[in-house]
Amino acid sequence: MKKFTSVQDIGDLKAAVKEALEVKKHRFDYQYLGKNKTLLMIFFNSSLRTRLSTQKAAMNLGMNVMVLDVKQGAWNLETERGVVMNGDKAEHLLEAIPVMGSYADIIGVRSFAKYESKEDDYSEKILNQFIKYSGKPVFSMEAATCHPLQAFADLITIEEYKKTPHPKVVMTWAPHCRALPQAVPNSFAEWMNATDYEFVIAHPHGYELDSKFTGHARIEYDQDKALEGADFVYAKNWAAYTDPNYGKILSSDPTWTVSTEKMALTNNAYFMHCLPVRRNLIVTDDVIESPQSIVIPEAANREISAEVVLKRFLESLQ
Ligand code: CP
Q1: CB 190 within 8 Å of CB 6
Q2: SS3 at position 102
Q3: Which residue has the CA at smallest separation from atom 7 of ligand 1?
Q4: How far, in Å, is the centroid of ligand 1 from the Cα of 154?
Q5: pLDDT tens, 77-135?
């Protein structure tokens, strides 16, 4: 594997889940792969889970790990070509990337959508420059349009908890006070579409996602109808994708918050969220604290999805 930015890069999903469950049982058995290999994790945006789980996965594999927070202690980086650099940005990404590549064997990048330009966000301008200029395998730790490590962990979690071979999985929009990226819902949709589950997406009018990711999923504008008989409820907020509202908040309708009443419509569904979550906007205290909430094992599986991806990179470097 040379890069990991979308579901296509992982290949056969059943094989990937099987490998993940094996890695989960024997997570320290592959230390020989990471000996004298260095992971560099570059964060343009904040993180708790991705930072810790990916570092833990790399340590499980015997790797050395370096972490760079671009906004804390590094030179402020220019990302555009042609700019006269007489402002506050002391270094250009086009020098910084190959320099970073010279110190690392594998590079992880977190770089969110800026919601300044849909074209820039959806062309994955920053991530693709790392792929092009670092000379090293690169993986997304949540980029502008996708969060594949999260979606892989979500899939592993559903496989562990499902009670039927083809569960009904509902991803529902829920209200939030800030304009959040579409990376998590895009990736979740992309990965669910690659399974044989029944997959439904519920959101208010105006919150349609890029059809490149939603594919053949059933779209419902009536959340109650979508939730009927669900085995898994995956809540997430995202800002509008479609023009002219790209990056905007169009609704804060509290009736879309996932509550005990909403969960009562389901087939005793498990509740999932990628975290961090704002309680009583996205989900009520009662639901997230209920026995059906699997947000903690879901987050724990981030270590496993990261370990499988790093293991595959290391195997291709041997
Ligand atoms: N779910 C997730 O990626 O969490 P962090 O933003 O804390 O890394």
Answers
A1: yes
A2: helix
A3: 48
A4: 13
A5: 998 899 999 999 999 999 999 999 999 999 999 999 999 999 999 999 999 999 999 99
